[in-house]
Amino acid sequence: MDLSSKWIKVSEPFPHILHVELARDPVNAVGFEFWKAYGTTFDSISEKKPHVRAVILSSAFSDIFSAGFDLYNAGQIMKGRTDADPASDAARIAMNFQKQIEQIQEAIMAPERCTFPVIAAVHGTNIGLGVDIIASCDIRYAASNARFTLKQVDIGMAADMGTLAYLPKVMGNMSFVREMAYTADWFSADRAEQMGLVSKVVDGGKEEVVASALELAKRIATKSPIAVTGTKRLLSHGSDHSVAESLQYTTWWNAIMLQTKDFLKRPGSSFLPARPGDFKFGTPKL
């Protein structure tokens, strides 16, 4: 089943690993159709591709990851909302905007809902909503040519698609987070690594960072998919709950999941199937 669409390219560079590329020419500006396709792509992979063990996310364009929100499209959405009923009061207009914002948030957070890890391979320029996109991924690698900015304050708004919620959790320096969010200043890949936004900077551009992300995905793919999925769910739960709550959740999760046959395999052995078709999620042939 081909998951590619108008502005999203999906390929399988290695068994059990997919490569999702953002491909809205010329700069991956995120508009209405784009974010719907983005969320649908990840949800469809989860639902229709049970063999997938890791996904790499990059841009199809070497010089830019994303230019952020499509401002023309945003203006059309806002105009449509306010023109729909000129007599409507501000509260009702706000309720309509709330629905729109929540739909976009749901799409941008799609990688977090996936059972498999999503690795962002960032290269070139990444602006505003593009940072929201990578913030919801499990792991972030950056090419040395990558640069970032939280641009929302420059267009008169607070970032509302995940950046301000995720960055305090994934970055270790709140002073830096606030400085970048308040000023829309640019920061480099090296600075992003130093502050914890990315875990690795790869010398070069798109080709090099995608290759590095693929090597990481290959290592993940050799592990038990039950163990990786469980680890992802427990880490996500732990980021939003107390230690006691997370331990209780872990107890119930492992009470069920430790019954997998994967738990009996020799440590260090690969969980990749010997032949295509040998693998179905949760029941690998041993």
Automatic annotation (TrEMBL):
Pathway: Lipid metabolism; fatty acid beta-oxidation
Species per Swiss-Prot/TrEMBL record: Lentinula aciculospora
Entry annotated with the keyword Lipid metabolism: yes
Keyword tags: Fatty acid metabolism, Isomerase, Lipid metabolism
InterPro entries: ClpP/crotonase-like_dom_sf (IPR029045), Ech1-like (IPR045002), Enoyl-CoA_hydra/iso (IPR001753), Enoyl-CoA_hydra_C (IPR014748)
MF terms (GO), sorted A to Z: delta(3,5)-delta(2,4)-dienoyl-CoA isomerase activity
Identification of the protein by name: ClpP/crotonase
One of the protein's GO biological processes: fatty acid metabolic process
Similarity comment text for this entry: Belongs to the enoyl-CoA hydratase/isomerase family.
GO cellular component: mitochondrion
